[in-house]
Design goal:
The chain is mostly helical. Helices cover 61% and strands 0% of the residues. The chain binds zinc ion. The site of zinc ion has 8 residues, from loops.
């Protein structure tokens, strides 16, 4: 195998691996409020279309890359749906005196009800 080919396979492993680290982080923290559903749906759509292109062009490396990134993005979309109602919880965070919402320690106003804490 030639060097450009080896580097390309390493890049595919790196790219696909990056999504699996995201999946692991979501799995551990169950926090998805900062993740954009639109971004991931468009990513999956683009990767999905390019799977077809790679298949038509008969390019093994391109096909593997598209499938190896398409699948984890689908899993992330599933995680965003599954953890939609979950919220990050830290027992050190103060609760709002009016509405009992968990605030961050450095917040002066509650984002839910506007109470000054
Ligand atoms: Zn409040």
């Amino acid at each position: 195998m030639e060097l450009p080919n080896i580097i390309s396979w390493i890049a595919i492993i790196t790219l696909a691996g990056s999504y699996w680290f995201q999946i692991y982080k979501i799995h551990v923290h169950k926090e998805v409020r900062d993740l954009s559903m639109t971004y991931h749906v468009l990513l999956a759509l683009g990767f999905g279309i390019l799977i077809f292109t790679a298949f038509v062009e008969d390019s093994t490396i391109f096909l593997v890359k598209q499938i190896a990134t398409f699948i984890p993005v689908l899993i992330i979309i599933g995680q965003i749906k599954y953890h939609d109602k979950d919220h990050w919880h830290s027992k050190n965070d103060p609760l709002c005196s009016r509405c009992n919402t968990e605030n961050e320690p450095d917040w002066h106003y509650c984002p839910t009800c506007g109470q000054m804490n």
